[in-house]
Amino acid sequence: APSLADRILGRIRPPKPQSVTHAVNNVDLSIRTGEVVGLVGESGCGKSTLGRIAAGLIRPSAGRVEIDGVSVSDMDAEQARRTRLRVQMIFQDPYASLNPRRRIMDTVGEAVRIHRIVPPQDLDAYVCSQLERAGLDPSLRGRYPHQFSGGQRQRIGIARALAVNPDMLVCDEAVAALDVSIQAQVLNVFMDLREQLNLTYLFISHDLGVVEHLSDRVVVMYLGRVVETATVHELFQHPTHPYTQALLAEVPRIDVRGKRFAAIKGEIPSPMNPPSGCHFHPRCPFATDRCRSEAPALRQVAADHWSACHLTEAG
Ligand code: SF4
Ligand code: MG
């Protein structure tokens, strides 16, 4: 078995202002092998950018991604290729990433063939086993994407990702487009795979219920910065950052499933031109002059619990 992705670490500065990518600034995110990290925040906060950087789909303009302590940018081409396979991405809309004119067996088998993961004569059996693992009937492998439901298409996306033996899945709103009942099924697939394959997950979602259900640890982002991170229980029981508190306050504690973040007062400022000091200050009920001028650092507030707020620093 391949050694597991030990940690992904990025210290990232914003891309050029004309870039379409949202800025992610000085984020330092480590993910341990086998861990499920939920990444939450309003849209435009940089969650997807961070996920794509972790999956090697975007190169940070500064900073680095490390896997097993080795910086991806220091790897030779062959090492980088193999490393990219170890972190696979699952998207919100699998249909958009499935070629409508290709049978699903060809889609699932493509990277396997290109990267010679199994000998050509074993490809068909291998594809069948991947489909099965994702909960799909392999006898349907000659069909085309439009012949499947939304939930089944997401399973096709999962089978395609699994086929290259990843250590880690970056799931970007992977169940957001599905009906709630189907969401539960797909989430169960993710959790079963975690058990079976010791997969590591970066689970990006704006659904707090999903994140609470799945994650070991939660990272809260606001305008390109991590504002709070803690174990899931700690974060949901004792949120310390005013932004996290606002997010959680919008969600009734009973049955958070399927509930979305409601709007917090005030517009989300542009991530390209964020407010000075603490980016949250224009919307924060506790903001002081210091908040407007000085960016709070992420500080430890309890075991496994870090928060970036001048208030928590003061106790
Ligand atoms: Fe609010 Fe100030 Fe804390 Fe930012 S640093 S969250 S503005 S109190
Ligand atoms: Mg997004």
Automatic annotation (TrEMBL):
<comment type="similarity">
    <text>Belongs to the ABC transporter superfamily.</text>
</comment>
<dbReference type="GO" id="GO:0015833">
    <property type="term" value="P:peptide transport"/>
</dbReference>
<dbReference type="InterPro" id="IPR013563">
    <property type="entry name" value="Oligopep_ABC_C"/>
</dbReference>
<dbReference type="GO" id="GO:0016887">
    <property type="term" value="F:ATP hydrolysis activity"/>
</dbReference>
<feature type="domain" description="ABC transporter">
    <location>
        <begin position="4"/>
        <end position="248"/>
    </location>
</feature>
<dbReference type="GO" id="GO:0055085">
    <property type="term" value="P:transmembrane transport"/>
</dbReference>
<dbReference type="InterPro" id="IPR003439">
    <property type="entry name" value="ABC_transporter-like_ATP-bd"/>
</dbReference>
<keyword id="KW-0067">ATP-binding</keyword>
<dbReference type="InterPro" id="IPR017871">
    <property type="entry name" value="ABC_transporter-like_CS"/>
</dbReference>
<dbReference type="InterPro" id="IPR050319">
    <property type="entry name" value="ABC_transp_ATP-bind"/>
</dbReference>
<keyword id="KW-1003">Cell membrane</keyword>
<dbReference type="InterPro" id="IPR003593">
    <property type="entry name" value="AAA+_ATPase"/>
</dbReference>
<dbReference type="Pfam" id="PF00005">
    <property type="entry name" value="ABC_tran"/>
</dbReference>
<keyword id="KW-0472">Membrane</keyword>
<dbReference type="Pfam" id="PF08352">
    <property type="entry name" value="oligo_HPY"/>
</dbReference>
<dbReference type="InterPro" id="IPR027417">
    <property type="entry name" value="P-loop_NTPase"/>
</dbReference>
<keyword id="KW-0547">Nucleotide-binding</keyword>
<keyword id="KW-0813">Transport</keyword>
<protein>
    <submittedName>
        <fullName>ATP-binding cassette domain-containing protein</fullName>
    </submittedName>
</protein>
<dbReference type="GO" id="GO:0005524">
    <property type="term" value="F:ATP binding"/>
</dbReference>
